[in-house]
């Protein structure tokens, strides 16, 4: 069982579902009378985005992009590259970028800068998890699911080496798993 790698459950599936309902209700109210384009950053945000979209009682569209950091080293340059771009133009659209977790903030800051150049009608951010103690660059988060401590988290879309995304909760990964390599 791969759940043996989980030290503890940080946020249960029930708590996530309750918070996602609240966020969906807030979006339904805030975007009333408009259509909303949810942009997910692959792959981590896919689970959250599809659950969130179903809690919004408005016309909702989905699109996805995939970005990655240039350096995987301890010291990030903050540069990110686009591996897969959106499938549509966003000019004039009400865009909500949906992210799984904001850590240094570099990924999101870069994506926001890029999307802003494409002239959306509005551009906001909804992050399921916020690790504020790790922030290296200021980035405004309009909707936040949970603030979390500086621990390595997996589940509900979040991975370590592409694993654990399908756990229904957010858990803390045992340090020996990532210290021990494969
Ligand atoms: P940032 O550019 O440092 O804010 O990077 C955010 C990205 O790093 C997220 O979208 C995740 O893919 C990844 N990430 C940051 N913290 C964690 C974590 O605790 N578990 C899994 N992935 C993480
Ligand atoms: Mg991500």
Description:
- It is a single chain.
- The protein has 182 residues and is an alpha/beta fold.
- It has one domain: Rossmann fold, CATH 3.40.50.
- It is 23% helix and 31% strand.
- The protein is built from 4 helices and 9 strands.
- A 6-stranded mixed β-sheet has the order 4-3-2-5-6-7. The chain has a 3-stranded antiparallel β-sheet with strand order 1-9-8.
- α3 links the parallel β5 (94-102) and β6 (122-130).
- α1 (13-30) packs across α2 (46-53).
- The two termini are 16 Å apart.
- The model has no long low-confidence stretch (mean pLDDT 93).
- Residues 41, 44, 100 line the site of magnesium ion.
In short:
This protein has helices spanning 13-30, 46-53, 106-116, 175-179, and strands at residues 6-11, 36-42, 60-69, 80-84, 94-102, 122-130, 143-147, 153-154, 170-173.
